[in-house]
Amino acid sequence: MKRTPVVRARVTRAKGGAPWLYLAPALVVLGGLLVYPVYELGLISFLEYTQAQVSGGEPTGFQGLANYRALFADAQFRQVLLTTVVFAAACVVATLAVGCALAVLLTRIRALPRLALTLAALGAWATPAITGSTVWVFLFDPDFGPVDKALSRLGLSGFDGYAWTYDRYSAFALVLLEIVWCSFPFVMVTVHAGIRAIPGEVLEAAALDGASQWRIWRDVMAPMLRPVLVVVTIQSVIWDFKVFTQIYVMTNGGGIAGQNLTLNVYAYQKAFASSQYGLGSAIGVVMLLILLAVTLGYLRLLRRQGEEI
């Protein structure tokens, strides 16, 4: 039976809507778990919502953008925002560098060392953030930590009993190392899977042309792995920008006089330590908007370069 144009159009529309039908249950679950909390977060950010309102002692009042005006007028918030951006960028760059280097290394070593490295990396990845942070604090403890003792035995007397979390920059460096340690396995495994999908003839041809390992990575692997690198970069940006556990545990709530505060810890202090839930929600909204802007901007840049995402 020959289909008329009207029938063919209806069939095409039905086929086009089929994927959405299959995705509907997942979209409903995501709507409940993601959209509604974001809506509540945004709503509270426009309210006067402190402990008095939570306990019912005073009525909740709508105050528009007052929380946001107070937030951006706060010099400490601006400083914490800048610190968070710089710290997250350093964590992302270090994580990608270590993860990509080890992914390439996995393609160069034999089966047994490759298995050992993969298991060690997955062990670090599977370690809960609070457990890993506590272990790293012990390792660098000025009194009992083995790192200070090992450094002093190597002749670096300045590290004998050195308190890593006392100084602002050494505390951030310590947290950065822990974040890279627990984050690089995701990058390593993902990039390694992408490298295995590259035809071996391409890499062999580059090697025969005399290209160094760095040139092979830069000119051959990285362009072919760009979709994979987009995923791990965006994921790393999201993880590192909203880091909380490592900062809170390793610097005891943000360091001395708040010198190691990041936005997530700052929002926690405002919302729960100071009972300024509206202000804490405003910080959460600002973080959400920044992450959305960075992600969409990065994807748009790649699309302008002709990349398929």
Description:
The chain is mainly α and 309 residues long. The chain contains 14 helices and two strands; from the N terminus they run αβαβαααααααααααα. Strands 1-2 form a two-stranded antiparallel sheet. The longest helix is centred in the N-terminal third of the chain and has 40 residues, at 5-44. The protein starts with a helix and ends in a 5-residue tail after the last helix. The relative contact order is 0.11. The model has no long low-confidence stretch (mean pLDDT 87).
In short:
By secondary structure, this protein is an all-alpha fold. It is built from 14 helices and 2 strands, in the order αβαβαααααααααααα.
Which descriptors would you attach to this protein?
two-stranded antiparallel ribbon; 14 helices; 309 residues; single chain; mainly alpha
Secondary-structure blueprint of this entry?
Blueprint: H1 5-44, E1 47-48, H2 51-54, E2 61-62, H3 66-73, H4 75-106, H5 111-126, H6 129-139, H7 146-153, H8 168-196, H9 200-208, H10 213-224, H11 226-241, H12 245-250, H13 263-273, H14 277-304
Antiparallel strand pairs: 1-2
Helix pairs in contact: 1-14, 3-14, 4-8, 4-11, 5-8, 6-8, 8-11, 9-10, 11-14, 13-14
Helical percent range?
Answer: over 70%
- The computed structural class is mainly alpha
Q: CA-to-CA gap between the ends?
A: 40 Å
Q: What is the mean predicted local confidence, pLDDT?
A: 87
How are the strands of the biggest sheet laid out side by side? 1-2
How many E strands?
2
Q: Approximately what portion of the residues adopt beta-strand conformation?
A: under 5%
Q: What about the largest sheet?
A: 2 strands, antiparallel
Q: Please trace the helix and strand order, writing H or E for each element.
A: HEHEHHHHHHHHHHHH
Shape: globular
Using the CA coordinates, give the radius of gyration. Answer: 25 Å
Q: What low-confidence regions span 5 or more consecutive residues with pLDDT below 50?
A: none
Question: How many helices in DSSP terms?
Answer: 14
